[in-house]
Amino acid sequence: MTMTVLTQPDALAAAPRWRVVASVFKLRIGFLIMLTAVAGLVISPGPMPSAWKVVVMALAVLVSSASAGAFNQYVEADSDRLMRRTRNRAFASGALKTGPLWMAVIIGLLAAAVGTVWAVLNGTAATFLFLGAFTYAVVYTVALKRRTWTNIVFGGLAGSFAVLTGAAAVDPAIGTLPMLLALVLFLWTPPHFWSLAIANREDYAQAGIPMLPVVVGPARAGRIVHANAIVLVAASLLPVYFGAGPAYGVSAMIGGTWFLMKTAPLARDSQRKNAMAAFFASMVQLAVLIVGVAVDAALR
Prior knowledge:
Layout: H1 17-23, H2 27-42, H3 51-75, H4 77-80, H5 90-93, H6 100-120, H7 123-144, H8 151-155, H9 157-170, H10 176-199, H11 201-207, H12 212-216, H13 218-237, H14 246-268, H15 272-299
Helix pairs in contact: 2-3, 2-9, 2-10, 2-15, 3-6, 3-7, 3-9, 6-7, 7-9, 9-10, 10-13, 10-15, 13-14, 14-15
């Protein structure tokens, strides 16, 4: 297959320098991962750490996620240039130049985040924090992404490790509820990302990346997304039987029903509109779950 580098408009040329640099760190994704870590903390039984320790943990998760996101963009600059969705990223477009200084910053941020959590909280939380960044940056981005369609299945562990980081901040002996929430995050990632991949199938095919819809076709991928969503929603209800509060149960039902209402059309017709609707519905589902966890914690 011939790969053509798409013409790149200089989209970042007029942006302030700080905004160009900030775009490398995928802070919106990092903020979501930080919230899952906080959810893992508040769903765990036991005495909560002091407020400042919670803030330290949350910021450390954000920084470690930013480090992994920057590594992802650094390593994938060449393939990002081949995809319409990613060709304007800072490294891909040339707005920022790759080099050893950037790698030092990336490693330094991760080391600072892990070291801080180790010193302020405990070694178990720090280990989970490191594993989350390592899974996304090395296991997913380097080892699996260009080799197998199962890349995001294993990449989904990154979100699970964020939940476990928060849980370990309360008790290094992880309890059942945070383990189940980590399972939910693991199952959430594939249908979330595969929905986006269906919408951008041509981009991934152009770049030679074997995402699920490239390998099996968008129609079959749409059916797989819906089947995975059913499993995810069922798993998201399990915490109710192990002590999660009523707000979580209601949130799991509402968010899960909404997600399934959007993946069902995708299973029937894999057009881009349905794929993007399922993608955004997955974000809604996760956000509603996190709100449910927070409400239960406030009422505890």
